[in-house]
Amino acid sequence: RNLMEFMTAQEAGQKWKLSSRMIAYYCASGRIPGVEKKGNVWFLPLDAEKPKDKRYRKDIINDQSDTDRG
Predict the structure, then answer these.
(1) For residues 24 and 9, is the Cβ–Cβ distance under 8 A?
(2) Over the Cα atoms of the chain, what is R_g?
């Protein structure tokens, strides 16, 4: 792949409405496949998908609202 097929962590952050630091964390932890690091800059494939935020589980919220209805 050439660099024209990639976006920087900063560009991905603007696209996904996340900080570039959070994107760098996702890259370093392997949560975004196909990333490359050149110097201090992370490059993500243009077709990369935003990883799910593991801090929130919609399933738990939906289960609690179902039991509240009785």
Answers:
(1) yes
(2) 16
Q: Which of 64, 26, 32 is nearest to 47 (CA)?
A: 32
What tens digit of pLDDT does each residue of 17-41 get? Answer: 999 999 999 999 999 999 999 999 9
pTM of the model: 0.71
DSSP states of 34-64: T-EEETTEEEEETTPPPPP-TT--HHHHHHH
β-pairing, 6-8 with 41-45? Answer: antiparallel
- For 68, residues 6+ apart whose C-beta sits below 8 A from its C-beta are none
Provide the residue type at 31 as one letter: R
